[in-house]
Write a structure and sequence with these properties.
AOC barrel-like; 146 residues; 55% strand; mainly beta
């Protein structure tokens, strides 16, 4: 049976191991919905109501406004005037990143990175999505690849 000093030593080792973890990588993209606007599908009661669906397939840009891929997915209205529950894929030339979570109508939304393919296989982390108010969304991903 481990002694108290063994338990303290083991806990200290675990604390040191967590301190040596690498910082997350960062990728900043801009989803451009100015030309390819999301399609609103009105379900149930007319106007903004629970169950309404947004579908989108838009260019994905880098910080220089050059197209680097595609941003496509769906959102379901869950709280009127507040938020949608969404899932979408950022498709890049070297793989794709799948995200899912609550997208707020205003302000920044923290979205989970749920998987990836190609160079992004084994990805985990989160994405901050900000509606820029001009038809674009800045998406900043903070991630690790196992």
């Amino acid at each position: 049976m481990p002694t108290t000093s063994h338990r303290i030593l083991f806990a200290s080792f675990l604390g040191m191991a967590s301190c040596t973890q690498k910082l997350p990588l960062t990728l900043e993209t801009v989803a451009d919905a100015r030309i390819h606007k999301a399609k609103f599908i009105d379900i149930g009661e007319p106007g903004d109501s629970a169950g309404d669906i947004l579908t989108f397939d838009q260019p994905l840009l880098n910080e220089k406004a050059e197209q680097i891929g595609n941003n496509s997915g769906t959102c379901i209205r869950t709280r009127m005037g507040h938020s949608f529950q969404c899932q979408w894929t950022l498709t890049l030339k070297n793989g794709s990143i799948q995200v899912a979570g609550r997208e707020l109508d205003q302000g920044a939304s923290d979205i989970a990175i749920v998987g990836g393919t190609g160079q992004y296989a084994g990805i985990s982390g989160q994405m901050e999505s900000v509606n820029n108010g001009d038809g674009t969304f800045t998406q900043t991903l903070h991630y690790w690849i196992r």
